[in-house]
Design a protein that fits this description.
The complex is a heterotrimer of chains A (about 260), B (about 260) and C (about 350).
Chain A lengths: L1 H22 L12 E8 L3 H14 L3 E8 L1 H9 L6 E3 L3 H7 L3 E16 L20 E4 L4 H12 L8 E3 L2 H9 L5 E5 H6 L5 E3 L8 E9 L5 H12 L1 H9 L6
Chain B lengths: L12 H21 L2 H8 L2 H34 L5 H13 L2 H12 L6 H6 L8 H27 L2 H8 L4 H12 L1 H17 L2 H6 L10 H11 L1 H27 L2
Chain C lengths: L10 E7 L4 E7 L4 E5 L6 H9 L8 E4 L2 E2 L14 E4 L11 H11 L4 H14 L15 H14 L4 E5 L10 H12 L3 E5 L3 H7 L2 E6 L2 E7 H6 L4 H6 L3 E8 L2 E4 L2 E2 L2 E2 L8 E6 L4 E4 L10 E5 L2 E5 L2 E6 L2 E5 L1 H7 L6 E6 L5 E4 L1
Parallel strand pairs in C: 3-8, 3-9, 6-7, 7-8, 14-22
Antiparallel strand pairs in C: 1-2, 1-4, 4-5, 9-10, 11-12, 11-15, 12-13, 15-22, 16-21, 17-21, 18-19, 19-20
Helix pairs in contact in C: 2-3, 2-4, 3-4, 4-5
The chains are: A alpha/beta (about 260), B mainly alpha (about 260), C alpha+beta (about 350).
Chain lengths: ~260, ~260, ~350
């Protein structure tokens, strides 16, 4: 009895404080001029480019706010399948986009990414070419073959007919990059865009196009989008000339 | 109903039940997710067996290290007094609250190639990064406070009276420690070691940051679970349940041994 | 019995522990047993701690025989002092058998396992616990445990024995036997015993030192301090009745004939003393029925309030009774009365 009364009192108090906050004149009311929100789920590697595109898109579409959720593509697919409120999905590979099936409306490839060798700025193991990665004593870190960047690394290894022995097979590009930046690893295999984003913390060494692996990035608006037109506008913006220019700046290739 | 024991107030059952639900429900949900038909295959796959073996080996090694290093630490904390002791105690317990990733970064800054001791270690020909040794170091780092706190508590509870008597009988400090103090706190040492083992077994963040991830060398069961999650969520669930089962067995067996002391 | 003669050394102690407001000096003669009496916080434990070395204070001095244990540049660690401890709790090491407990001291001194076990058996026999050797401390009664603890302390062959309320935790049934045992082992040992029961002090100690607020307020032969206390504390707890006489046919024969519990060492025709507490004395106007063995007609000399009771003085005897009893019996100076004491409340021991 007394417990119930306590619970009731708590609820009333919480409601009261909420109401008080709502009616507080110093707190501005929800801005009516920004009613449109777009939620974009995108692969982590797209973050720098999409952040920039997001603000220019907002400038071009007054009254629109773009929210981003960046994570690994497979995580994002899992979240979307569990009913996460995503309007657009941009994947780092076609495999994950395919998992969504009909939920993805007309996927379109909008960018590509290739691998590059990342080494610490002082390049302690003197890595200059792909063959060096198989040299004994070179501490190479790659992604695990189970994740997309690792699968791509395996393709390069096979294509170049090399047999390297990584000291670690990491979960994500960020983990590989971290090991190289800290100097623990002599070399890592990451995407071109990652090397670019890392600035002068790592040096990039190109991999010959003949043996390089190419990841294709598809984008699609989603079945359950709150505002299908706005979602389509974002897809068009990214695949259009303005979007492509920015993606090039960040190292992505043309799809 | 037993007479003479003061009753627990009835309302205490409500939050207790709430806590139990909070802990047990997710575990039950996890077990419910297990694809039981494929379970045997999933947990006996090559990578799973290698990861479990590595986990058990490294956790045992870390526990031994924790006992060897943590016992003297607990003794110093419980039995001595000097300026800065409270600060030292707080520092020793820090890994309890530190995010494991931060622990990993700190270990890198110490034992990494470009870390504090990196040059010394390189000259000595020891390579820590990407080795099983790094896994053991990471596990010891995060598990040590569990042993130290639990043993320090036991030492404080045991008090110094037996030690005073032993000294009056002519026993040197070393003899007092080995023949009186340690036997008296053996149960506390044991439960501290079990806690440390359990923590080492579940260690993830510091390991992946500091040691990397390579099958058979540094990829322990938690890392394997995290990796499998990317490609085969069913396998991840099955391995999680396997890890849980190992932890439960360790704790139950340890408790039984203890009550038999 | 013991293989070696008991080492008896004099102890010289100056305890100056400012933090506890203790400042006292004491010399204990070889073989002498000194009882420390005093209220809680009077400095008994501090004094024992300074001697044992569990309290380190640079301005205190302790010497055993010729050997200085502390000094400006000297500090002998507790385990190198040869000073035995027996506390209120037996504190037997719970993980060791009784035999291993008693053998702990000899082992610590470097004795081989067999020799230590041999010494342990000797001492267990000395305290009457031979059959307990294989037990764990948890399987002992309180009295047995304290006997074993005594054997353990003695097996280390200490030059000085410190006892801190060794009888306090024992129940009424086991206390007399332990008291008797202590009386035997302390006879020729240098010992300091903190104690609150004055009768225990009377039976165990040659000398009584009364402490109050960290200072010595009384120091003298046991019988003197206990029967004619000068300090406030001793007066409150002591004021024992002591009757002297000769031991004859199982009773003490003197000015009055006294029956009681006899202690070892009484010799037919030898000098003896009877001791009992004033609170054990019942006061009557006329001799009660059933002719108790200790009933003495007296004349009341004085009535003195003591706490919430009244001390009835009659010659060299005194009784503690309630004010109601005084009123009911119509006691007043000059009035006749009969003091009655149960034989079980009287301790008879040789002089």
């Amino acid at each position: 009895m007394s417990l119930r009364r306590l619970a009731a009192a708590t609820v009333v108090a919480l409601l009261g404080s909420g109401l008080a906050a709502c009616s507080d004149p110093s707190v501005p009311a929800v801005d009516d001029s920004h009613p449109k929100r777009l939620t974009v789920y995108a692969a982590s590697s797209l973050k720098p480019a999409f952040d920039q595109l997001g603000s220019t898109f907002e400038d071009a579409h007054p009254g629109t706010l773009v929210d981003f959720n960046y994570a690994g593509s497979s995580d994002l697919v899992a979240q979307i399948e569990q009913g996460a409120p995503a309007d657009v999905f941009a994947s780092a590979d076609t495999k994950n986009m395919e998992k969504l099936g009909a939920a993805a409306v007309d996927p379109a490839d909008f960018a590509t990414n290739t691998l590059e060798i990342a080494v610490p700025p002082d390049n302690p193991a003197h890595v200059t070419r792909l063959d060096d990665l198989a040299r004994p004593g070179v501490q190479l870190v790659t992604c695990a073959p189970q994740v997309p960047c690792g699968a791509a690394a395996a393709l390069v290894e096979a294509g170049a007919k090399l047999d390297w022995k990584p000291v670690s097979e990491e979960q994500s590009v960020a983990d590989v990059l971290g090991k190289v930046e800290s100097g623990e690893a002599d070399a890592g295999l990451v995407y071109v865009t990652d090397v670019k984003a890392a600035g002068d913390k790592v040096e990039g060494i190109e991999i010959p196009a003949a043996v390089n692996a190419t990841n294709t990035y598809p984008i699609a608006s989603l079945e359950g989008a709150k505002d299908a037109d706005l979602a389509a506008a974002w897809v068009a913006y990214v695949t259009g000339p303005a979007g492509q220019r920015v993606l090039r700046e960040y190292g992505f290739g043309r799809a | 109903m037993r007479a003479g024991e003061p009753a627990l107030p009835r309302w205490a059952w409500l939050p207790a039940a709430g806590g139990a639900v909070l802990v047990l429900l997710p575990l039950a949900a996890l077990v419910a997710e297990v694809p039981w038909r494929d379970f045997a295959g999933l947990v006996t796959s090559d990578s799973a067996r290698v990861a479990l073996g590595l986990s058990l080996r490294t956790a045992v090694a870390s526990t031994v290290l924790c006992v060897l290093l943590g016992t003297p630490m607990a003794l110093v904390l419980a039995r001595s007094s000097f300026r800065g002791l409270p600060l030292l105690r707080a520092a020793v317990l820090l890994p309890l609250v530190l995010p494991p990733v931060v622990a990993g970064i700190a270990l890198l800054a110490t034992f990494g190639r470009r870390g504090l001791l990196g040059h010394v270690l390189e000259v000595a020909g020891v390579q820590v990064a990407f080795s099983t040794l790094a896994v053991v170091l990471a596990q010891t780092f995060v598990a040590l406070p569990f042993l130290v706190t639990s043993l320090e508590g036991a030492l404080r509870t045991a008090g110094r009276r037996y030690e005073t008597v032993a000294a009056s009988l002519g026993a040197s400090p070393t003899r007092v420690l080995l023949r009186v103090t340690l036997p008296l706190v053996l149960p506390g040492l044991f439960s501290g070691a079990v806690l440390a083992f359990a923590r080492a077994l579940g260690e993830f963040g510091a390991t992946i940051t500091f040691a990397g991830s390579l099958q058979g060398v540094t990829r322990t069961l938690p890392l394997e679970i995290y990796l499998q999650r990317e490609v085969d969520p069913d396998a991840a669930v099955a391995l999680s349940v396997l890890l849980m089962a190992v932890a439960v067995v360790v704790i139950v067996v340890a408790r039984r041994d203890r009550s038999g002391l | 019995m013991t293989a070696r003669p008991v080492r008896s050394e004099a102890v010289l102690v100056e305890a100056n522990v400012a933090a506890r407001d203790v400042a006292l000096a004491l010399r204990i003669e070889p073989g002498e047993t000194v009882a420390l009496l005093g209220p809680n916080g009077s400095g008994k434990s501090t004094l024992l701690g300074v001697i044992a070395g569990t309290l380190r204070d640079d301005s205190s001095r302790v010497a055993v025989g010729e050997r200085a244990l502390t000094g400006a540049t000297t500090w002998v660690a507790p385990h190198e002092r040869g000073i035995g401890l027996l506390a209120q709790d037996p504190l037997l090491f719970p993980h060791l058998s009784v035999l291993a407990n008693v053998g702990f001291g000899p082992r610590s001194e470097g004795a081989r396992r067999a020799a230590a076990a041999e010494a342990a058996r000797t001492w267990l026999a000395r305290v009457g616990c031979t059959d307990l050797a294989a037990r764990k401390p948890a399987q002992l009664s309180g009295g047995q445990a304290q006997r074993v603890a005594l054997a353990r302390a003695l097996a280390a062959e200490p030059a000085v024995l410190l006892l801190d309320e060794p009888l306090a935790a024992l129940d009424v049934d086991t206390r007399p036997a332990m008291r008797q045992l202590l009386r035997e082992v302390l006879r020729d040992r240098t010992a300091v015993i903190a104690i609150h029961d004055v009768l225990d002090a009377l039976l165990l100690a040659d000398r009584v030192v009364v402490l109050e607020s960290g200072r010595v307020v009384e120091d003298g032969p046991t019988a003197e301090v206990l029967t004619r206390p000068r300090s406030a504390f001793a007066a409150r707890v002591a004021g024992l009745n002591l009757l002297a006489g000769r031991w004859a046919s199982g009773v003490l024969v003197g000015e009055r004939s006294v029956a009681g519990r006899s202690h070892d060492g009484l010799v037919e025709g030898g000098e003896a003393v009877a001791a009992f507490r004033p609170s054990a004395v019942s006061v009557y106007r006329r001799a009660p029925d059933g002719s108790p063995r200790n009933a003495w007609p007296v004349t009341v000399d004085a009535l003195e309030p003591q706490g919430d009771q009244v001390r009835v003085r009659a010659g060299d005897l005194s009784a503690l009774v309630t004010p109601q009893a005084v009123a009911e019996l119509d006691l007043a100076p000059g009035a006749p009365a009969v003091f009655v004491v149960k034989a079980a409340e009287v301790e008879l021991y040789p002089r």
